[in-house]
Amino acid sequence: MPKHTPSASPHKRRPLQPLWLRITHWLNAAAVVVMVMSGWRIYNASPIFGDFTFPAGITLGGWLGGALQWHFAGMWLLAVNGLAYLLLNLLTGRWARRMFPVSPRGILRDAWLALTARLSHADLGHYNQVQRAAYLFAVADLVLLVVSGLVIWKSVQFPLLRELLGGYEMARRIHFISMALLVGFIAVHIAMVVLVPRSLLTMLLGRPTWQRTTQQESAT
């Protein structure tokens, strides 16, 4: 006689990263890559730091006009998708749960644990305070990139923003430095993914393994 089982259907656990988060994350990543590479080509057309320019092979657009088209395409994608990302994080309460609390003392503590290889990565659903600070920094940096970009793009239409940033030329420098800091964040982010590959699977599949998590069924 077959043994009674509570449920014949497999039980799926709630994903660590919901689908909406994964979609908006990768769209944001694509938009940032497009904007950075096309931005380097735009910078090369009018350098602000002497003779320093970026190699053509790592830029996007081929020429100034093409780079501007790519840059604006990436800008609109980042603006719309980034706003959706922020609103969904706030409305679902995920922002408050994952990004706070954060404090200088907590950041220093977790940074020391990471440097001494004692920081646990067992629970990928929990962000340590170094991660929280890094993600909050990235959001603030992106906001500064958007604001300075508006001043560069529509300087006459945004006189208050232009003055707050110290003028058009200063806005260009702020935009460049913010871009460099964002590239630095991405480099560190990729390094962390290499050290903890399960985090990449979590952002791709919603779980840290290829195998589906199911409730084991009793033998009949």
Automatic annotation (TrEMBL):
Subcellular location: Cell membrane
SUPFAM superfamilies: Transmembrane di-heme cytochromes
Domain of life: Bacteria
Membrane topology category: Multi-pass membrane protein
Residue stretches spanning the membrane: 20-43, 70-91, 133-153, 173-196
Gene3D superfamilies with a match to the protein in the record: Transmembrane di-heme cytochromes, Chain C (1.20.950.20)
Pfam families: Ni_hydr_CYTB
Domain Cytochrome b561 bacterial/Ni-hydrogenase: 17-204
InterPro entries in UniProt: Cyt_b561_bac/Ni-Hgenase, Di-haem_cyt_TM, Hydrogenase_cytochrome, Ni-dep_Hydgase_cyt-B
Assigned keywords, A-Z: Cell membrane, Electron transport, Heme, Iron, Membrane, Metal-binding, Transmembrane, Transmembrane helix, Transport
Family: Belongs to the HupC/HyaC/HydC family.
Protein name as catalogued: Thiosulfate reductase cytochrome b subunit
Organism, as annotated: Comamonas odontotermitis
